[in-house]
Amino acid sequence: MENIKAFLKRKDIVISGKRYGIDALGAMAQGLFCSLLIGTIVKTLGEQAGLPFLVDVGAYASAMSGAAMAIAIGCALKAPPLVLFSLAAVGYAANALGSTTLSGEPGAGGPLAVLFIAIIAAEFGKAVSKETKIDILVTPLVTILAGVGLSALIAPAIGTAATAVGNVIMWATDLQPFFMGIIVSVVIGMALTLPISSAAICAAFGLTGLAGGAAVAGCCANMVGFAVLSFRENRWGGLVSQGIGTSMLQMGNIVRNPKIWLPAIFTSAITGPIATCLFRLEMNGPPVSSGMGTCGLVGQIGVWTGWLAPSEKAVANGAAAIVPGAMDWLGLVLISFVLPAVLCWAFGIWFRRVGWIKENDLKLD
After folding, report:
1. Which of 37, 53, 185, 316 could tie 218 with a disulfide, CB 3.0–4.6 Å?
2. DSSP collapsed to 3 states, 77-141
């Protein structure tokens, strides 16, 4: 046992909740942002501006999301160069296979599969790194074979599990708008912050219409909510990186203190039914926009394009072009920006007062 402990220490393999649940998870969020989310933003801008080059750039960036997430995880685990570079292939495979279900249908578990599999592959690679005279062959082989092999074995199952979240959403759309607004808003908002692709879930299940509007509300509640809630700790940089970037940056802090998530969850439970019942806010642009929130304003652009020219999927679900009125614009602004900021800020004051949120609990590294 002592020999094993000494070996793990020498290899800097630290099996702990902090290393995997905070360090790796936080790094993965950055990898996802620098690939899929940035890619979606650029692609959307290109489509709206009529610039095919930007559309292509966005598509290339999004296609590399698996590799980017895996490499980011490797950095957090302090993987040596040969392991780090090999994780690109592992991440690509885990993301691709996790984006399908066991039945071969489209799934939404790519990022979640990358998280689990990249950690295991990285630690295997670190274990053999520089242990042989042919390290340049052994280390990449072990890392890639372990990662890709594990992807083939379990990634589709992870995809099936993540897709089950989408099934809950589809079930919720059959309920009356009030309850559907709460359920969809809370579930998709949480999925956006978790290492599950909310955009992929919405795309896989063609989430448009009122359900899409509720999803946008939930995502905005988390992104704008965390941006405002953590302004004391992170100032303007945090406001932009979370409000226009992703609330997944807070995942490491949530693991440390889950209570910091409650203001955003409570906010989404309020704004969701307001969106569906009061403003009848529909998101009839591309379904992927339902899961983007204020990330690059893709959610808001999706609502706007859905008004003017509904997506193919939205049309198939019965949507038609409209001329937006003052109530439509008011609803979009309130649901996307004003209510998430005000409500989450108010909840935050109370949470700090009772000691559920303490100083620097929301601090981003």
Report:
1. 185
2. CCCCHHHHHHHHHHHHHHHHHHCECCCCCECCCHHHHHHHHHHHHHHHHHHHCCCCCCHHHHHHH
